[in-house]
Amino acid sequence: MSRLVMKFGGTSVADLERIRRVAGLVAAETAAGHRVAVVVSAMSGKTNELVAWTDAAGPAADGLPASDDEYDVVVASGEQVTAGLLAMTLRNMGLSARSWMGWQVPIIADDAHGRSRIDDVPPEALTASMDAGVIAVIAGFQGVTASGRIATLGRGGSDTSAVAIAAAVRAVRCDIYTDVDGVYTTDPRIESRARKLARISYEEMLEMASLGAKVLQTRSVELAMAQKVPLRVLSSFVEPGDAPGQGTIVCDEEEIMEKRIVSGVAYSRDEAKISLFGLPDHPGVSSVIFGALADANVNVDMIVQSHARIADTANMEFTVGKRDAGRAVDLVRRLKDQVGFEDVQVNEDVAKVSVIGVGMRSHAGVAKTMFGALAEKGVNIQVISTSEIKISVLIDAAYTELAVRALHAAYGLDQL
Q1: C-alpha torsion sign, points 291, 293, 294, 300
Q2: CA of residue 410 relative to chain centroid, distance
Q3: Are 92 and 86 in contact (CB under 8 A)?
Q4: Are 113 and 103 in contact (CB under 8 A)?
């Protein structure tokens, strides 16, 4: 019998009624002949509550190490509750099931508490239990360090847990159940004519996830692509037995017959633009600035540099997440004497809008269409960033929805 991994997010397990619905979906896959492992998130809102408790407890006193490890102990408990409740519900239905914590599998992770990365998942104990007919209900989001401490994988980490488990047990597929029924050409809340995609490549999904689409966590797509784990995104609100043929398959580009020029439009309002004026225009300046930001774990995205009016000086703009904006500006200001720039400014009233598609590799004119559509709507472009399969622009946040709808229509995504 083939092994299957199923993952359910917080809205899918928000209360006991929804946990019973999830149990029905698991039972249907078991009846179809699969050996099933289920990865669960905490109930909707529970992780936020736990994080708030850790914030209220306050930081460690001077002279003591930071409490990141104890933070992980607290916030990982939400998934433990869900795993136990789902295992109990499955047993109530007459099915053999048991819960697994991250340390029991074990999901071995590094010691970067709060944002750990998975190093290894030894599968022997888990596969033996699954092959004996016991449904494995695994607490997502959590692992264990080499020293035996609980470590969490960052927000959305249950997706990564599920893909890592699927790779370890050599699952035929990893099904990610969410509150939407697949991956759409753009956010249906903004564009009512958005279309659900039957298939999307790993690379496209990775770009969409990193550029603002909330369907899958970025690291989970990276891992699925590296390990060649087929993913399916579908709704947890289907009736048991209705799942086959539904949702969106995330797979290798070669498995997609018709490669669209553009597959989707993504957006992110979690952006801040930092502008540096009067930078000395000589080698090493960028290295100092971005080296300091990297050392502080500030992720920089879009970067553009231009000559200033004064000879031998330049202006530079780059983007960071809004949460990091204040810290990034403080770090840059500390470098003012060393670097010698004139001024720094921050603008949080911006948004990033992107078009993504593997067809860009072989088709000219994608940028022309994008810039023309935005110009026609009077949307000014502040920064541009490109890769082989995406073009991103930074615009005034007030024009986000207008830009998304204009681009969706410009590439004919409403006609798929």
Answers
A1: negative
A2: 27
A3: no
A4: no
- CA distances from residue 109 to 11, 136, 338 in whole angstroms, order as listed: 26, 20, 38
Q: What's the CA gap between 51 and 379, in Å, rounded? A: 38
Which pLDDT belongs to residue 241?
A: 64
Rounded Cα gap, residues 94 and 85, in angstroms: 14
Cis peptide bond N-terminal to 59, omega within 30: no
Q: Burial of 190 by CB count in 10 Å (0-12 exposed, 13-18 middle, 19+ buried)? A: middle
Q: Which of 357, 398, 406 shows the shortest CA–CA distance to 377?
A: 406
Chain centroid to CA 154:
10
| Distance, C-alpha 34 to centroid of its chain | 28
Residue 404 structure tokens: 């998304």
Closest CA to 28 of 6, 51, 56: 6
Collect all residues with Cβ–Cβ distance below 8 Å to 145 and sequence separation of at least 6: 108, 109, 110, 111, 116, 151
Non-local (6+) Cβ contacts of 2 within 8 A are: 33, 34, 35, 171, 172
| CA–CA dist 71, 97 (Å, integer) | 29
Amino acid at 377: K
Spell 388-404 as b/e; 16+ CB within 10 A means b. Answer: ebbbbbbbebebbbbbb
Beta-strand ranges (E) seen in 227-371 are 231-235, 248-251, 264-280, 300-307, 313-320, 343-356
Q: Which residue has the tokens 């770090």?
A: 331
CB–CB of 416/197 below 8 Å? yes
Pairing status of strand 231-235 against strand 248-251: antiparallel
In this prediction, residue 243 carries a pLDDT of 57
Q: For strand 313-320 and strand 264-280, is the pairing parallel, antiparallel, or unpaired?
A: antiparallel
Question: Using CA atoms, how far apart are residues 99 and 152, in angstroms rounded to an integer?
Answer: 18
Name every residue whose Cβ is closer than 8 Å to that of residue 211 and which is 6 or more positions away in sequence: 266, 267, 268, 352, 354, 356, 390, 392
**Where does residue 255 rank: exposed (0-12), middle (13-18), buried (19+ CB within 10 A)?**
exposed
Helix (H, G, I), strand (E, B) or coil at 120: strand
Q: What is the pLDDT of residue 123?
A: 96
Q: What is the mean pLDDT of each run of 10 residues along the chain (416 residues)?
A: 93 95 95 96 94 92 92 96 98 98 96 90 96 97 95 89 96 91 90 91 88 78 92 85 76 79 92 92 89 90 85 89 91 90 93 92 87 96 91 95 96 86
